[in-house]
Amino acid sequence: MTDSVFTPTRTETDSIGSLEIPAAAYWGVHTARAMENFPIARRPVSVYPDFVRAFACVKQAAARANLEIGALDEQRANLIDAACEEIKGGRLHDEFTVGVIQGGAGTSTNMNANEVITNRALEIGGHAKGDYSFINPNDHTNHSQSTNDTYPTAIKIALAFSLQNLLGELTLLADAFAAKGREFSHIIKVGRTQLQDAVPMTLGQEFNAFATTLREDVQRLEEAVALLGEVNMGATAIGTAINAPVGYKEAVIKHLRTITGLELVSAGDLVESTSDTGVFITFSGALKRSALKMSKIANDLRLLSSGPQAGFGEINLPARQAGSSIMPGKVNPVIPEAVSQVAYSVAGADVTVSMAVEAGQLQLNAFEPIIAHSLFQSITWLERACQTFRVNCVNGITANEAALEDTVARSVTVITALAPVIGYAPAAQLAKQALATNEPIADLVVAQGLLDPAQLEEILKPERLTGLPADHGVENTTEGAEAVPRDEMTSELPVVSSTE
């Protein structure tokens, strides 16, 4: 028989009744009830550290604004400010324990933030946790605020923070493809349309196209994040600014811009802004676009590397793990497969966001928690997918030059370059004959006297077939930003945090 361990507690009370809270906990009664009510995802909001940081930014800005307009005394405001600063720096994130899926339009998360900030502020000031007579989660930390303006504002700030890491990884991935474009710029291959042989190109051109399409998505995501700059701080419950003192709205936006470094502006119509979540559809759509284009690239790499004997076999992907428990020596394209699965999840999350945005009623959308979870998960998974795609796949790709050279030599695709000279109908006949006899097109053209060897050589020069000079290298026009992964990802890389 073992002795039970006694855990010291403190008693906290809300409008429903009293609960015993672990004495060491920084969260309080509202958070405790939320943990009881929403044991659904088994994932606390702390799995998204940028969301926690964003909430700390919002509460810090509110404390400074309330101090500036005289709505909060200097001692309490400074203690709240100091607690927020610590949370921005990464402290106490494990105290943000409410589940990512919750009812109440985010009230549980807002109260979790209020309680943690309040109890840390009390501790800094030499008071006991739970001494809410001195600093109260509602009356002081949440002063001039409502969940309905702090929660969506924190989502937007957190998305802007998180997106910087994703953009960095996307840029690095584009750079990796561009580097392969330069490496493969001299290798001629057969281009394909509808999975059928089309015309010659270089392997470098193919990889450069991958780089270009990813860079386009960096631009699209940058455009989408600009839309997140309009926030509704000061709107309070439904946009009428009830309980927000005169001057608070202007002051809180000013401080929030300074704290986050973001170009934030106050919404022109706070009632509309409080009820409208349409910006999240736009942002989600940009994430989906990027994810699906990455999946298309992943699928192309799987096709190009298929084999090694009975497939395309044009490139080799790095062998990452044994591919079968029954087939010895089999190696599968596991990294591209994982990337595509992330894309499917992002596409599904986009549907979830769309449905949640549509479901908002009257002056508030109660479903912002699932919007936030869907978007944060999509960004996190996309960033991780970009990194593993680059490090564990793209950087190690090699070309099967001998196989590609043989394929091009026997390919009838060069007939397209000859058609303007010898005519479409003769060219089509030659293509059929080459396919039937497996003879090179060049040999047939010369044998039939359609062109002499010198003419043929001039027409079939690699630069004429591909539209590029023979020594052309793919330019890497964009310098890759240093990508920084999520806290839960690669520990050896630092994490970007907002700075004043």
Automatic annotation (TrEMBL):
Gene3D superfamilies: Fumarase/aspartase (C-terminal domain), Fumarase/aspartase (Central domain), Fumarase/aspartase (N-terminal domain). It comes from the Bacteria. It holds the Pfam family Lyase_1. SUPFAM superfamilies: L-aspartase-like. GO terms for molecular function: aspartate ammonia-lyase activity. One of its GO terms (cellular component) is cytosol. Residues 415-467 form the Fumarase C C-terminal domain. Residues 18-348 form the Fumarate lyase N-terminal domain. Transmembrane segments: none annotated. The keyword Endoplasmic reticulum does not apply. InterPro entries: Aspartate_Ammonia-Lyase, Fumarase/histidase_N, Fumarase_C_C, Fumarate_lyase_CS, Fumarate_lyase_fam, Fumarate_lyase_N, L-Aspartase-like. Residues 467-500 are annotated as: Disordered. This is Aspartate ammonia-lyase. It comes from Brevibacterium koreense.
